[in-house]
Amino acid sequence: MSFSSSRLYLQCSLFAFTFGLVGCGSSSSPTPSTTITVALNQTSVNVAAGATTQFTASVKGSTNTSVTWSVDGLSGGNTTSGTISSSGLYTAPSVAGSHTVTATSVADTSDSAKAAVTVTLQALMLSPSSALLATAGTQQFSATLQGATDSSVTWSVDGVIGGNATVGTVSASGLFNAPARAGSHTISAVSSTDPDTQGSASITVASVTLSPGTATIEGSTTQPFTATVQGSSTLTLNWMVDTAVGGSAASGTISTSGFYTAPPQAGNHAISVAATANPTISASATADVFTVAVSPTSAILAPSGTQQFTSTIQGLTNTAVTWSVDGVAGGNATTGTITSAGLYTAPSAMGPQTVTAASAAQPADSAAASVVVANLAANAVLTYHNDDARDGAFLEEVNLMPTNVNSTQFGKLLAYPVDGQIYAQPLYMSALSIVGGTHDVVFVETQSNSVYAFDADATTSNPTAFWHVNLGPPVTVDDSGGPWPNVGILSTPIIDSTTNTMYLVAETSNTGPNGTPFFLHALNVTTGADLPGSPVAINATDPNSTASLETSCYQRMSLALNPVTNWVYLAFGNCSHGWLLAYDKSSLAQEAVFNDTSNAAGGGLWASGGAPVVDDSSGNMYLMSGTDYDDVWISPPPAYAQTGYNDAFLYLNPSTLNVESYFSPDTNYTLSANDADLGSGAAVLLPGNSQYPNELVGGGKDGNIYIVNPLDMGGFNGTNNVIQNVLTGTQQYNNIFSTPVYWNGSIYYHCDQDVLRAFSWSTGAPGGQQLSTSPTSMGSVVYGNNTHGATASLSANGVTNGIVWDTDNSAYVPTDPSSSGPLVLHAYDAANVANELYNSSQAGSRDMAGLALKFTVPTIANGRVFVPTGTELDIYGLLAP
Q: What is the pLDDT at residue 7?
């Protein structure tokens, strides 16, 4: 600390002269003065605010030279005026101003024994006091000098006047230019008049970099970006995409840790970070988003069928792709093959495959399409109700049209007598190599356990049975709905087009080693012979209870073949439980067992002969369970799902048969108490829309048609949590005993003691596809006599020439089937079912069918209609001109 003051020193000397005394100053007293005086080393001083200065006091006139110190009259001072120690060390306050420091003699406290000095405090303050800058950034500083008349200052950076390129430079006016490197610096201003009066500010120069600088990212995928900060350990950052903090759906989103999720669309986007305290401290990177797409995204093909796939790459200049199937470049005979142009040829075996297009420029990025080779064949009916969705439509019919199906041009061509009632729907294969030739073949099965392969193109003059086999003596039962003379083959089999194998269940009086009468057969369709390992005796034990398959069960529900698992599924009902069993189609080994009422009872699976629905794209399985009047209910809700699935829609995992989801109506207990099965009908899987890609439609005895989300069915919670339900039919508890037909935006139901009704299928209010709440057209013929209405089939040439076919079995006599009257085949214009085109009673006895029988389902293929009856297979078609 320096002082800017003049010092006053007084000295007096006394000299003894012979002639007297001589004194200094004006005193001429010959004797010493007794006045005490105090003198300070300074009378005025400039001190920097907050600094210290040392004062000294000289006391004369007393041997006691001690003094006391005060500031502005306060002994020792205070924080406002500054403090002073007993030795005279003054510490200035931080605020500029003027203060008086006084030294008072201890020996004499009168005013004459005091000395004062004026202290002028100078303060130099910088604004701002700190700054956060980006490299090469600028900041204007200002210096405010208080307590001094000369306000000029000298600027320096890290002690270097004016700074330099390393630490940054500062102009005479205080404009600071940050260096190119991050770091911490101090900028100072010093008073030009007092070097001890100075001020300083801290400067943080920070920088941030992003890595990677450019990222090429596939749409909807993720990319981490890393921000590296230099010059500050406390810097917080905002992450942005295209200037929006956090990004957006259109540009992609980014987390606070830099994890970027690209949008699904191709495009170029700026990824950036900026310090929250100073956005100029920033860095940016580029996200080049590209997309790889394959069209179509899924396909269901027949064995050896083809599908053209197309790849689309956006956001890359190189749009080439490489194709693979199940990870095999170009595929192979097992997976199917695909050309460099994307033409896929399916293998000859059923099953799921994945077709992948990988970007040639970005090989790690690809798009895939799922392919399922399903049980399909041209001009064939291989399963109940035509396909695994159970829509009942034959869409390759080019001969039969509304214009020529009439009693003049159309009629009965021939009948094949059989040895028992035909409950199974006829199956049909076109151009089959059989008995040394190529023929169209229709297959029928009877209650006497016979299987026939008939020439489907025969006429009355040349009926031909290519083969006939009997699989054992049937069982004789007396069903509550009327006696069946025999129960042999009750369900519709399934034909595997890839191996020409028919799978069926025969019930015989020759029980198997496990005591049950049921046998699963795998027959060669060209000979009727059992394949090696066939038949296998059927039995099942519930893995969740002590229940096992009973001999009293009926295997009424039709068989299903799942192309994803390559398993055959068999359903049982009319006994204590509802059972679904799965068997490997090759080994015939039992793979899975499901009891829908473990630790309860009921839940029979019969569906009036319907079949489980199989979603060929996923393998998911759907079916509807029934109930019986004496079903046991162990517990009411909410324990429903643990005690049984009576009267329920069920979504089953095809590999485990676990229940993935279910729906049961809120009237479940009423249905059970009145033997009003939901599962008297069967379901059909229909195309939905973007909200529900598929929807399940089905109904039962009470006439309620339910539209269910197959993947989230709604459960059982007191409300019908479904997409829609529509009431149809005329009876209280005797309406739907059928699988509906779907074609070209319409659904067709024919309830018991009712007419054929058509409903439209279109987008509804909740967003899913829905039925019209009332019929769009209605037939005029009531099928009565408690024969359960009809399960219809449909023929069309794609979306044209639709004809609905069903059979009126009103003449069926349940107590004596042999005394039944003839079945009547009906044909309706699918565009308006009020227009009946034909029925087999119009031409007298010419077209008379065999004996009426419940639950018959006609099959249409290649210009012919195959009608099962109680005594014969009738074939109808266009009459010879």
A: 30
Predicted structure pTM score: 0.78
Query: In which element (H, E) is residue 211 found?
Result: strand 198-211
Same fold, 15-122 and 393-878: no
In this predicted structure, what is the pLDDT of residue 506?
98
- Helix (H/G/I), strand (E/B), else coil: 670: helix
- Contact call for residues 877 and 837 (beta carbons, < 8 A): no
Looking up tokens 């990824």 gives 271
Q: What's residue 24's pLDDT?
A: 35
Q: How many CB atoms lie within 10 A of CB 213?
A: 12
Q: Out of 2.60.40.1080, 1.10.3720.10, 3.40.1280.10, 1.10.300.10, select the CATH number for domain 128-206.
A: 2.60.40.1080
For the cut 50, the answer to whether the pLDDT of residue 642 exceeds it is no
**What is the C-alpha to C-alpha distance for residues 821 and 541, in angstroms, rounded to an integer?**
42
Give the CA angle between residues 738, 740, 745 to the nearest 5°.
Answer: 170
Ramachandran bin of 842, using left for φ above 0, alpha for ψ from -120 to 50, beta for the remaining angles? alpha
Going edge to edge, which strands form the sheet with 393-394?
Answer: 393-394, 793-797, 800-808, 824-829, 836-839
**Residue appearing with tokens 């006047």:** 161
* Cα 200 from Cα 127, distance rounded (Å): 9
Containing H/E element for 352? Answer: strand 351-359
Q: What CA–CA distances, in Å, run from 280 to 187, 202, 473?
A: 20, 18, 92
The C-alpha atoms of residue 777 and residue 779 are separated, in whole angstroms, by 7
| Residue 864: CA count within 13 A, CB half-sphere | 27
Residue 337: C-alpha distances to residues 68, 159, 307, 332, 789 (Å): 109, 77, 11, 5, 47
Q: What class has domain 296-373?
A: mainly beta
Enumerate residues 6+ apart whose C-beta is below 8 A from 261. 220, 221, 222, 252, 253, 254
User: What are 246-293's pLDDT values in tens digits?
Assistant: 999 999 999 999 999 999 999 999 999 999 999 999 999 999 999 999
Say if residue 798 is exposed, middle or buried (CB neighbours under 10 Å; 0-12, 13-18, 19+): exposed
| Segment holding 430, helix H or strand E | strand 427-434
**DSSP letters of 144-159?**
EEES-S---EEEEETT
185-220: pLDDT as tens digits: 999 999 888 888 888 999 999 999 999 999 999 999
- Between 591 and 49, name the one with better pLDDT: 591
List C-alpha distances in Å: 525 to 453, 474, 753: 8, 21, 38
pLDDT of residue 765: 64
3 state SS of 347: coil
CATH superfamily of 393-878: Quinoprotein alcohol dehydrogenase-like superfamily (2.140.10.10)
User: Of 450, 494, 420, nearest to 850 (Cα)?
Assistant: 420
State the fold for domain 15-122.
Immunoglobulin-like (2.60.40)
Rounded CA gap, 687 and 744, in Å?
Answer: 11
